[in-house]
Design goal:
The chain is mostly helical and about 80 residues long. It has one domain. It is elongated and about 45 Å long. The relative contact order is 0.16.
């Protein structure tokens, strides 16, 4: 997915997929945070024992918002 963004490939379907993926991920993160279940953060959690926090939730929402913005921009540019 990152390669598509890096080389500007995929267009709106790429952004729509990213939006859906990040919304689903946000729902999963908020469920685990509410249950106070400690799971390792996917990026560096296995190496450095970094737990998932509310920052993870904010990151997911921000990436979803960015994908939505990219979809919106495709209609105007």
């Amino acid at each position: 997915m990152a390669g598509l963004y890096l080389f500007n490939g995929g267009g709106t379907p790429r952004d729509a997929f990213t939006l859906i993926l990040m919304v689903i991920s946000s729902v999963g993160v908020i469920q685990k945070l509410r249950e106070k279940e400690e799971i390792p953060y996917a990026c560096l959690g296995m190496v450095f024992k970094v737990p998932m926090t509310w920052v993870t939730f904010a990151e997911d929402l921000l990436m979803a918002a960015e994908a939505l913005l990219m979809i919106g921009m495709s209609f105007f540019f």
